Amino acid sequence: MKSYLTINEVLKRKHFNSCEVITGKVGLTNRVKWVHVMEVTRVNELLKGNELILSTGVGWKEDNELCLSFLKQLIECQASGLCIELGTYTSQIPQNVIEFANEHEFPIILFHEEVPFVEITQDLHALLVNQQYLMISNLENYSQQLNQMLLSVNDPKDILQHLCESTGLLAGLRIHSEVTLFPACLDLPQQQLLQHHITKQKKNQSSFFTHSIQLLGESYAELYILSTNDFFTELEMLTVDRTATALAQHFLRDLYVEEKKRVQETEWMVQWINGEISSSQITHCLQEVLHDFPIQGGTVICCQCIQDVKLDHTYLKLTIRAIFEQEGFHLLILEKKRELVLVVLNKRQVTTWRERLERSLNRWINHVDLQEVNKSLAVQLIGVGQFNRRLDHIYKGYETARKTVSIQMTLHNQVKNHICFYEDLHMYRIISLVNEQRELQEVVMEYLQPVLEYDRKFNAKLFETLKVYLACNGSKQETAKRLYIVRQTLYHRIEKLEKLLGSDFMAHEKRMAIEFMIMTYDYLFALNVSTTAIDELEKASLT
Q: PucR C-terminal helix-turn-helix domain location, by residue (predicted)?
């Protein structure tokens, strides 16, 4: 089934009974998608290709050069052929025109008597439109059959078998490294021919092409199609496209079911990240869910969500699993109340794990197709835990990932990126540990109280000056520049700091302690041991 005619088929119509083909008999297989009456000699902007041109020759009459120019334009525009009515305006076709048409295998058809161009166009256009309508109708029927099959079949091979039986095409399906040939009843020569095309895959072959089956933004399988004719009809191309879409839906359904099954079987993961199962149990459980072993260590990512994880986010999990797989990770996903836990297992070199993980996280957050899903999940903070080479130490990754999220939430005004690695927290890790001893506030006030109290009374901005002065490693020029003050003002503030903190406050050990207490003060302030609690502490110490 096709949406065009060939010139050979046109010549069988009743109005062409007495016509004569004088050139380009090889081109009688040219496709005709429309019929057009053309009486002008400049046609470059008027044609789109595959038109059969009807003309009386009124445009060039007996002008041989003008006739040749008209022919060249038709060939350049990829017209199918030229039909000329002799007698009224032109009596013969110039020899140079005949020779040029034969050189380019371009058919010229002569009517030696007057013919009704209107009836010719009506007849051929009706035939073309009916063929297009029938093609669309057949395509719709085929699509409905595919939809019915998707509801019942469990094997994609049945879909491809149906394609080959419906069209007569030969097909091959590659998933991973395995190639299956269709139809199932292929004889040996057909198998060898199809295998040859699949192996060679030469470009610009009119009877063979490859169709990639896309799933979650990536190529999941390859579909190879071979026609037993010299080229594919439009219906065949559209049928193959519909089949590829049906296969993609079938594969996605299988992945979806597999993902739902994974969710139901993740109870052991809870025990794993809590450190409650042995190394041998971990290995046994992983061998059931992983295709390739061994694993080169791993970590845990905690995603803090604003709302409870109640919705079905199977599509999200399928997509981010595919993203992480491309960077050399295997992903196990666990949903908790307001937390999405990703156990990230490394399959490549340990030295590159972080840069690959950062790329995966950024691709997930910026993935266009996941914007709405991410919004519904409302991921607020992402904490990446400590990397561990031993799988029975993965629970430490979970503990440190949760600690990372906790510190992020504490420092919410100071965190520039909502994705944070535990190994980047440095001093804040120490501060959070010391803070658990509940004596940290008194130590902070022991060092910083004089400066804070002076600022309270005189609004002198000494605390800000102290932070910038230490950050600039004692450079007065750089400090004044960052604070936007003149040198004399800075000198006055430094003198005041020396009186409040001691003239040795820039000495190595004391300076380290003061810098530590400034970071701690910021941490406690953000923690909402905050302004009110510190004020009360200051007043109590003054009392």
A: 462-516
Tokens standing for residue 437: 């001893």
CA distance 241 to 143: 10
CA distance 21 to 478: 92
What does the pLDDT look like over 253-308, one tens digit per residue?
A: 888 887 776 666 677 888 899 898 898 888 888 887 787 767 899 999 998 876 66
Q: Which residues is 81 bridged to in the sheet?
A: 52
Task: Please tell me the distance from the alpha carbon of residue 450 to that of residue 538, in angstroms, as a whole number.
Answer: 10
Paired strand residues for 21: 109
The DSSP letter of residue 225 is E
- Report residue 330 as tokens: 């295997």
**305 beta partners:** 379
Distance between CA atoms of 384 and 398, rounded to whole angstroms?
A: 9
Prediction pTM value: 0.47
Helix H, strand E, coil C: the string for 179-196 is EEEECCCCCHHHHHHHHH
- Which domains does the chain show, CATH number per domain? 5-125 (3.40.1390.20), 153-260 (3.30.450.40), 293-423 (3.30.70), 434-542 (1.10.10)
Residues 347-359: tens digit of each pLDDT: 999 999 999 999 9
Summarize pLDDT for 70-117 with one digit per residue, the tens.
Answer: 999 999 999 999 999 998 888 889 999 999 999 999 999 999 988 999
Residue 269 or residue 432, greater confidence: 269
> Two tokens at 45?
């902007």
Task: List, as one string, the DSSP characters of 119-188.
Answer: HHHHHHHHHHHHHHHHHHHHHHHHHHHHHHHHTT-S-HHHHHHHHHHHH--EEEEEETTEEEEESTT--H
User: Dihedral angle at the C-alpha atoms of 56, 59, 62, 66, nearest 10 degrees?
Assistant: -130
Distance of alpha carbon 243 from alpha carbon 452, whole angstroms: 73
228 phi and psi, to 5 degrees? -80, -10
d(CA 541, CA 538): 5
* Token pair for 520: 């701690």
Q: To 10 degrees, the CA torsion angle through 155, 158, 161, 162? A: -140
**Virtual torsion, Cα 11, 12, 17, 21, nearest 10 deg:** 30
CB 185 within 8 A of CB 197: no
Q: Are 401 and 420 in contact (CB under 8 A)?
A: no
Q: What is the pLDDT of residue 541?
A: 47
CA 391 – CA 394 distance, rounded (Å):
5
- Radius of gyration over alpha carbons of the chain, in Å? 39
Q: Which residues contact 210 (CB under 8 A, 6 or more apart)?
A: 201, 222, 223, 224, 225
